Amino acid sequence: MARVTHPSNLELQALSVLWHEGPSTVTTVLESLPDGKDRAYTTVLSVLQSLERKKLVKRTRDGRAHVYEAAFSQDAIVRRASHDFLTNAFGGRLGEAILALLSAGTLTPDEKTNIERELKRHKAMAAKKTAKKAAAKPAKKAAKKAPAKKAAVKKAAPAKKAPAKKAAAKPAKKAAKKAPAKKAAKKAAKSAKKAAKKVAKKTVAKKAAKKAAPAKKAAPAKKAAPAKKAAKSAKKAAPAKKAAKKAAKKAAKKA
What we know:
By secondary structure, the chain is mainly alpha-helical. Helix content is 81%, strand content 5%. A hairpin with a 2-residue loop joins strand 1 and strand 2. Helix 2 crosses helix 3. The protein is rod-shaped. About 5% of the residues have low confidence.
């Protein structure tokens, strides 16, 4: 309910008539005011018009007469007035206020029954509230501790995991960077070995070729040497042959 303007004492009396009698005319309200004082018709009319401006009553037309009806229940309006009265007059002490109200007049049997029923209901409501508060305290403590534990776990978990991930990631990155360098070094070493082998083979081949060249040149010399000896022996043998021929001719002549 929206906050409403607090009615005055006379306005409360007019509202009390509307709550108990239902929708009423100005005349009915005038005749039923609780304090019983003599008032003019215009006075009650101005009171009801004020309540209408405050939107506490609604006005309808019934023929030539105007009928007024309470816009809010008695509990909704009186609750605030009772709270103000209890605070201002008794400092908020409900027991003193009840005793003061009881001493202000006499109760009918029905009113006593209603009051006893209300007191029992009030007692049951108070017991429920205390039970809820007692049950809510451990729950609140557990609820406060639970977020603290979760927060501690959340804060601790990343602190443990993050360095491990970073520590594992750094060697991996370094290894990833070193891996291509190692491969390149291996390839370079292999190519260097191959080049060295080729150079070694070429040098060996050159040395072998150098050694083989003089041997080939020397070979004809060796062959030429016997030929020279044969020529010399042939030259030496030539006179012998001539001598033999001469001897053969002489022998033939003698024969």
